């Protein structure tokens, strides 16, 4: 089965065919100069182009799809179509199946992306007409940044304006940032949810993203793709006062400013030789001062942002370079990554110079072997990322064919596990926890004792302690609790507390400042080896689970399977998750059994490599 990926710009279309199972490239077609009298079409790898004359998007796409289908062995094999859509506004935070209603919503977002969304939509409408029998999916450039915290997405305008949903920072290149972050994590043999990454997408358009534990928490583009880094023809950050000055003193209009900032500036404006860094580097080597300045300003801006993002995340595990410049320009990588030793990133100059990305090695490292922060280059592949999103949404792979035995669901309210040492610090020397009631997992109990948990913003006066004592302190809270306390905790399997935030605990006999240990528990199912055999899963599989609650049925992805002789079959979710499915409403105790029943729907092998540190 194959996925067709369409990237429809204002005057060009890129259409890729990908193998659904592997993401492997099958064919590509490029059309340029749509709307002009001399549009051309070219197959990947062929030098010659076909003249199309004057065509609009629909005509161009029809030609593309007809020719592509002719070239494929089995034209019926197109199982789905993915469309890149630049702006998903606040509404589209994930890929969606396209309906007429979704088309209308994309249309409404055109005011936010006047250059892109109308062209994207023209492509969607034409392709749905031409291939009416398959699913079409929209994948948004803004979606990955839906997790930007309020402090990062808000412009400091007067309050009413700052809260206008159309006047905020959205961020772009999300498909690429998410893709290279995932590939970098695989290269490092880690789960992206354990890493703090800075991804640098440096192409004609350029942006940086701080990817903390798998979520975008800051990015350099804003309301429009003009904010942030120096780009091929865009200024990136500039003092807004300069615009006022140009308008007042030099009679600039909005259109003229648009032209200046979006098309006449950046590398092209500074260098005077166009936006291709290869030309600029060649001239700079010959001593051209304009070109040298262009390179210096570009690199300086990226370095400035790297420093800022490292500060925001409190450290960084890897800095990942991608895009035409990030992947190919050793000179630019060198200028950006030199003297980052203070961040723990040590550049290996030889590796950087000799690095060549090959299709078999699409991620490579150019830091020294002992560099604490890794420097990586990753080949971005947005069309593959879109194809993967389409496959995930429309094709049910790895379906479990087993008997659908229901699994009991229990909701876990916030609770804490403590070491004996911590119990004694908080309650006094020699203190032993008093069991209050047994929990469903054998040997586990809720204790009579509670502790006060004090966060930067608020505190919880009585968080239940679960016994028996363990070898690690671990506070498990929901996302809502994180907001209340004022901290960001990663989603983790129990026992995996490395690099998690700490918190202050207060007991009757003393206080304890935990350096780490606050997590949002990764939803999971406990089962015995017999259960696992019955369901056809293994320990640490990640599965999808449908939860039936009567009136708010829900399918949970990313559910971790934990198998042990010690366990009893039960799915554990937190109060946010329980409420979303209308289970255990008002649950205040720990592990409240609910009326809900879960059914395994499929195994998702994508996250198979769960952090081995999990207990
Ligand atoms: P887009 O943002 O349009 O997708 P790309 O990611 O393809 O752009 O990046 C294009 C840019 O990458 C080119 O304009 C050029 O400046 C730069 N580039 C590509 N190859 C090299 C190279 N070998 N050395 C320096 N710069 C390069």
TrEMBL record:
Substrate binds at residue 84. Mg(2+) binds at residues 7, 382. ATP binds at residues 14, 201-205, 276-278, 324-328. Keywords: ATP-binding, Cytoplasm, Kinase, Magnesium, Metal-binding, Nucleotide-binding, Transferase. One of its GO terms (cellular component) is cytoplasm. Pfam families: Acetate_kinase, PTAC. Mg(2+). Can also accept Mn(2+). This is Acetate kinase. It comes from Lujinxingia vulgaris. The lineage of its organism: Bacteria, Deltaproteobacteria, Bradymonadales, Lujinxingiaceae, Lujinxingia.
